[in-house]
Amino acid sequence: MNTKLVDDSLIKRPSAVIPLAMSVAALAMVLIHAVIFGIVHEADEGTAAHIFQLLMVVQLPIVAYFAFKYLPRQPILSLKVLALQAGAWMAAIASVYWLT
């Protein structure tokens, strides 16, 4: 019985790894910003907020490319990778709502 969550060959694809890395980077930015500056409501968005927004939006076309390329070929494995990507994306978004 194969107990792997995601096939190694599919998760190693750049179109699978890059969105995960971008979500983790965005989450790390939010957490580091909260540790350094505290949880405050700022009137004007700073550079960190703009970088966060760019990281979150730019990964969407990469995820769409991954879905169009690998979903027809390996539907179950690609759905698992897409679930990982969606979970990482939602974790980064949720951190902004909870910490700001």
SSE inventory with pairings:
Elements: H1 8-11, H2 14-37, H3 47-70, H4 75-99
What does this structure look like?
The chain is mainly α and 100 residues long. It has one domain (14-99). The protein is 77% helix and 0% strand. The chain is built from four helices and no strands. The protein has helices spanning 8-11, 14-37, 47-70, 75-99. 18% of the residues are buried. The mean pLDDT is 89.
Sheet of most strands: none
* Number of helices, where a helix is a run of at least 4 consecutive DSSP H or I residues: 4
Give the averaged pLDDT, no decimals.
Answer: 89
- What is the number of beta strands? 0
Task: Assign an overall shape.
Answer: elongated
Distance between the termini: 44 Å
Percentage of residues in strands: under 5%
Indicate the radius of gyration in whole angstroms. 16 Å
Series of H and E elements: HHHH
- Low-pLDDT sequence parts: none
Question: Which class best fits the helix and strand makeup?
Answer: mainly alpha
Return the domain count. Answer: 1
Binned, the helix content reads: over 70%
